[in-house]
Amino acid sequence: MNKPRYMEDLFKIIFLWLGIGFVVMGMLVFFGIMRPTADSVMQEPAELGAVFLTFGIAFGTVSAVLKGIVFFKNKLHDKLLMEGTRLDGVVESVYLQKHTQYGKESPYRIVYSYTYLGKDYHHKSCLLWEKPDCRVGGSITVYANNHGRSIIQL
In this structure, what DSSP letter does residue 34 have? Predict the structure, then answer.
């Protein structure tokens, strides 16, 4: 599996597995393998199973919505590479996003700025899984459109 390019891609994976886990727990309750404890607020197994299934379906729905968002972001990314206006941007910072991990790796992000049609823009790159070879204040290639959307090409 490819490493995620966007945070929504990571969240999609998380919500998918949460949904699967809750659906499995709900099925275990319905089959009588798992039962409510004496301290449980819900003592009826059917109610507990329904709650688990409801949460599982909700998490699965969120995962599906995030999958759609990622699809459109990837489509925009490809469109900007092919049809976007090529500009020179400036690297403002490069940092390791330590609080985000996929496996045991953390991605890098590049904060960059550029001027297009007389307006200054400041954006972040997508998740980069290898350390980028650029320095603060250096030049970077930016592909932008008229709607303020942009991507960088290393």
Answer: S
